[in-house]
Amino acid sequence: MNVPVLECNMLVNLYNITDGDNWNDNSNWGSADVDSWYGITAIGATVKNVWFISLGSNNLNGIIPTNIKDLTQLISLNLSNNQLYGPIPTELGELNDLEFLLLGFNQLSGDVPASITNLTNLQILQIQDNQLIGTVLEHVSGLTQLTDIWIDNNQFVEPIPNDIDQLSALEYFSAMNVGLTGQIPDSIISLDQLEHLFLADNSLSGKIPICIGQMAALKQIDFSHNQLTGHLPLSLGALTAFDFITLNDNNLSGPIPEFWGQLTLLQGFYLNNNRFTGLVPLGFGDMSQMNQFYLNGNDFESPVIPPAIDSWYQQIPNRNITPQGFSEEIFYADFDGSCGF
């Protein structure tokens, strides 16, 4: 055995408690060389410590053992896409060196333990597609090394905390269908590394932050299926790297800002099922990469597409502009203020 006894015992416990005999791959488990066990990487000169566990999509069926805490130098834990159930153990918060925690696509339940606030080196948190409840964002808003948060498809009920701006390294934030309430806080615009912001299928209300255009790295947003109101923020037109805007199924209103015509890299544009008015700006005719364009279910003027850019619209592969109150079949599977612009 080339790892400490406590670490070896923990791995044996994990094997037994998750039906290791029926894993998709259990190569070398039980042999003298722990570092040769499938999914385990142990590092060290003479005595090795377990640094990486990579057992995703391996048919683990059971619970996460509480003696996970004995892997004191663990950096990465990937148990995603298995049949794990039960709670995330509180003891997980004792893994001070942990940088990657991937537990998505299981049947984990209960509250996310508050002890995860101790994981100050955590960079990636993936707990999406489980049956978790309670809150999670209040526990992670102080984890300033986080670059990726995936918490979709759980049963949390919480607002986006105002101190989310502490997550200054965040690049990917996906919290769809998790019961988010309240408004999108203005503090979110301080996340200047954020590229992807997905908040669809929640109960968010209020306006889209006026100065969202200050989030210089932002490329994609999905705020669809919420209760957002107000006009489209003019400032977003400054984000010329944007490629997807998904705002369908809210209560947004007003015109599409002319300034948005600068978003020439847009590929997907979903404003369907709101209360928008006016016409599509002429600048949209320069969006040569557009392939998904949906404005149906609104109150636009007719014609929605000005004749000068109708040829552009006709070349978009997936499109619909049917106005509110019409029932035409569709076959796809839907200026507020100033920030110096």
Q: How would you portray this structure in words?
A:
The longest helix is centred in the first third of the chain and has 13 residues, at 5-17. Helix content is 6%, strand content 23%. It has helices at residues 5-17, 137-140, 310-314; strands at residues 40-43, 49-54, 61-62, 76-78, 83-86, 100-102, 107-111, 124-126, 131-134, 148-150, 155-156, 158-159, 172-174, 180-183, 196-198, 203-206, 220-222, 227-230, 244-246, 251-254, 268-270, 275-276, 292-294, 318-320. It has a 13-stranded mixed beta sheet with strand order 1-2-4-6-8-10-13-15-17-19-21-23-24, with no helix packed on it. Strands 12-14-16-18-20-22 form a six-stranded parallel beta sheet, with no helix packed on it. The termini are far apart. Residues 326-337 have low confidence and may be disordered. It has a domain at 207-341: Ribonuclease Inhibitor (Leucine-rich repeat, LRR (right-handed beta-alpha superhelix), Alpha-Beta Horseshoe), CATH 3.80.10.10.
Quick recap of the structure?
With 341 residues, the chain is mostly beta strands. The protein has a domain at 207-341: Leucine-rich repeat, LRR (right-handed beta-alpha superhelix) (Alpha-Beta Horseshoe), CATH 3.80.10.10. Helices cover 6% and strands 23% of the residues.
How would you describe this structure in keywords?
single chain; 341 residues; mainly beta; Leucine-rich repeat, LRR (right-handed beta-alpha superhelix); 13-stranded mixed sheet; six-stranded parallel sheet; 3 helices
